[in-house]
Amino acid sequence: MNKDGICALHCIDLSSPDIHSSVSLLKQACLDSGFFYVVNHGISQEFMDEVFAQSKKLFDLPLEEKMKLLRNEKHRGYTPVLDEHLDAVNQINGDYKEGYYIGVEVPEDDPEAQRPFYGSNVWPTAGTFPGWRETMENYHQEALEVTKAISRLIALGLDLDVNFFIRPEFLGRPIATLRLLHYEDKHSDPSNGIFGAGAHSDYGLITLLATDDVCGLQICKDKDANPQIWEYVPPLKGAFVVNLGDMLERWSNGIFRSTLHRVLGNGQERFSIAYFVEPNHDCLVECLPTCQSKDNPPRFPPIKCETYLLQRYKDTHADLNSYK
To answer: Which pLDDT score, from 0 to 100, does residue 268 have?
Structure first.
């Protein structure tokens, strides 16, 4: 950490023809912190601005209107301020943020809709929010393409076939969740258990984070340090902040890292958009062949993606023990 407490992340250009250099940068980032930037990812700044504008439009609604869009049994829709506790040990209240979940849209009459993490979304009425649903569904698809491009570099970084993660049984029909986030204009106070978002690591494969220009995200590279050292990840215009989830750490036998992160408020409201990606429900997450050896045997038993995610959700969301 430098004297300003700022983390200098590697920046990967997805349009670069120098794949070897891109893979080298990504691999170093995944070994070091599991966080990095990606630029020239193919999503236009104009479209990103529209997604943020539509997000702000929703959060600007009166609370009673937002509560009409409250999350459903599939965990889709609105989540109020203080509704989530990402770090129950250290937080005196919940997160000082509100959110809106948008998952993979599967019609109720589709048999797949009965599976965990699939189903119908909660949408604002088209008359009140014309084009809102279309914007979010388009972003859902474009973000998935960015994730697939990143997954190719990750595969090469793990000495796998370039298309390893985008095969049908992995990202062919993924579990992917878009999360719109709005942080209140409050000051966080970690010493008194007050956070914009409490410390946590993500469960899944890859997370894409788009932010406005307000700083707030922090990472802790060594969760076992005492005291823990936290570094800010500054916003980078036009870039995604990408981080690896616990599932990829498990898949890579602990070689690639999933890192603790949190959000501190500085008195300014802050908007961000997170996109969480996990593989197909039936994907078997087991130690990759390139990540094990006689001296480094598999550390985790194989587990089906759906089973793993349900366990993780129920461990950290007390109200989701009947998650559907």
So the answer is: 95
